[in-house]
Specification:
Blueprint (H helix, E strand, L loop, with lengths): L1 H4 L1 E6 L9 H11 L3 E3 L19 H14 L2 E5 L5 H12 L3 E6 L9 H4 L4 E5 L6 H16 L1 H16 L6
Parallel strand pairs: 1-2, 1-3, 3-4, 4-5
């Protein structure tokens, strides 16, 4: 089924660690959607606060998110805002052999953890706060394709084609 939708993309970003960048997350998610199906679109929702999701229990969120992480072709993690959850997801994805692209804004005044920058499996893509989210997403996907090779590149092309032709990719 992934063949029909392009890439399956797990987008990870801070929830409990802070939601100041939620509009940026939404823009990145929208831009990543041109390359495939973003499994975690809710991360960009303006209704999601640093209190987390309302409704599901923690164990249900964990099971759902780990299912999505296992299903993902690639992981794109916005790591500028420090977050225990994002760090866990990055480490878990790396241990599963997933391609992990970590987006980081040095102009934020924060320092990126050595556990992210020093991990040989994680590719760090630095960008500026005023960079176009579409350009950042395209660079992240390009970097992932270099890491994953022709199979993932073919799925990204399928996703881009269905986006431009208006085919319904569904949930």
């Amino acid at each position: 089924m992934t063949e029909e939708r392009g890439l399956s993309i797990y987008f990870s970003a801070s929830i409990s660690g802070g939601r100041d960048d939620a509009p940026r997350y939404a823009a990145l998610i929208s831009s990543l959607g041109a390359f495939g199906h973003v499994l975690t679109e809710h991360i960009g929702s303006p209704g999601l606060s640093d209190g987390g999701e309302h409704g599901p229990e923690d164990h249900e969120i964990y099971a759902r998110d780990m299912g999505w992480l296992n299903a993902a072709d690639i992981v794109v993690a916005e790591v500028t805002t420090p977050s225990l959850g994002v760090g866990y997801e990055v480490a878990r994805a790396a241990s599963l052999g997933k391609t992990v692209i970590a987006l980081f804004r040095p102009d934020s005044g924060r320092r990126l953890s050595a556990m992210i920058r020093g991990n040989p499996v994680v590719r760090v893509l630095e960008y500026a706060g005023d960079d176009d989210p579409g350009d950042v997403a395209a660079k992240a996907i390009s970097l992932a394709l270099v890491e994953r090779g022709p199979e993932v590149a073919r799925r990204a092309e399928t996703g881009a084609n269905s986006e431009t032709t208006g085919e319904d990719r569904g949930p």
